[in-house]
Design brief:
Elements lengths: L9 E7 L3 E6 L34 H17 L6 E4 L11 H15 L4 E6 L7 H9 L2 E5 L5 H8 L7 H9 L6 E9 L3 E2 L3 H14 L3 E6 L10 E2 L2 H13 L4 E4 L1
Parallel strand pairs: 2-3, 3-4, 4-5, 5-6, 6-8, 8-10
Antiparallel strand pairs: 1-2, 6-7, 6-9
Helix pairs in contact: 1-2, 2-3, 6-7
The structure holds iron/sulfur cluster.
The site of iron/sulfur cluster (SF4) has 9 residues, from loops.
């Protein structure tokens, strides 16, 4: 298995097919993943892997200093930037200073790259908290994960810790009033897991219509995964699942 852990608070810029030239922000420890999910496909590996003693999340001041230093340096060298993207080694919204960090990032963006977007890749688990929703509503691209409307499949794919509630996540996402991007993973594993089975697809399509996001991103595995035996889902299969949503007026992007 060869998974990736980001080695710094700020990384890149990297080229993203979805987001263009993207400067990454990792609010979780370097060399150790912390997430309240432990997805079987997580590119950072399992939560139990890569933990180092003394692992801690960076402080508000460390994040701000590294961001300002990096963004001003890129700007002075004339480097183009399309987006500043929060992703990294775990779920960014569990950082205790996430709302303050978003405010700081928007300020830095406005000063150095006013045309750039701020994006957050989130697993949606904290969106029921008013301060987290308020912070996410300030960014250009809140990209919010729900991998299944079926609680059993969701537990298999995402392995949430604590008292995860799909209903609570759905209610939280409704706070966007549709102004968010929904992201969903599709994969298979032999005869054990099939995200394209009709019994999973129909409730997921109903959930999308209920939440009515401004865009849906459907994607499949792209790199090695911590769980062995996972298989990609074809673009054709995902396009078939997307078709009724597009007919209903939902914008859907499929990435194979
Ligand atoms: S939510 Fe993201 S960071 Fe967390 S385990 Fe899943 S893929 Fe990894």
């Amino acid at each position: 298995m060869s998974t990736i852990l980001w080695q710094d608070i700020i990384f890149g810029p990297i080229h993203s097919r979805r987001l263009g030239t993207s400067l990454g922000v990792n609010l979780m420890p370097v060399n150790g993943k912390i997430c309240n999910f432990d997805c079987i496909y997580c590119e950072c590996g399992w939560n139990r892997d890569g933990r180092t003693s003394g692992t801690a999340v960076p402080s508000f001041r460390e994040v701000c200093d590294r961001m300002e230093e990096t963004v001003s340096g890129l700007h002075s060298r004339g480097v183009k930037l399309d987006t500043i993207t929060f992703s990294g080694n775990g779920e960014p919204t569990i950082h205790p200073d996430f709302p303050r960090i978003i405010d700081f990032t928007l300020n830095i963006r406005d000063r150095f790259y006013p045309e750039a977007k701020v994006s957050v890749l989130s697993n949606s688990t904290m969106v029921h908290r008013p301060e987290i929703l308020a912070a996410l509503r300030k960014v250009d691209n809140p990209i919010m994960k729900i991998d299944s409307a079926d609680p059993g499949l969701l537990r298999t794919l995402n392995r949430p810790s604590g008292d995860y509630s799909l209903e609570r996540v759905k209610e939280g996402l409704k706070g966007f009033g549709g102004d968010f991007i929904l992201q969903t993973m599709f994969l298979r594993k032999g005869t054990e897991i099939d995200c394209t089975a009709l019994r999973f697809v129909l409730p997921w399509q109903a959930l999308v219509l209920e939440l009515s996001p401004r865009e849906v991103m459907m994607y499949t595995i792209d790199r090695e995964t911590p769980e062995s035996g996972l298989e990609k889902v074809s673009v054709d299969d995902m396009e078939r699942i997307a078709a009724p949503l597009r007919e209903a007026g939902i914008r859907v992007q499929v990435r194979g």
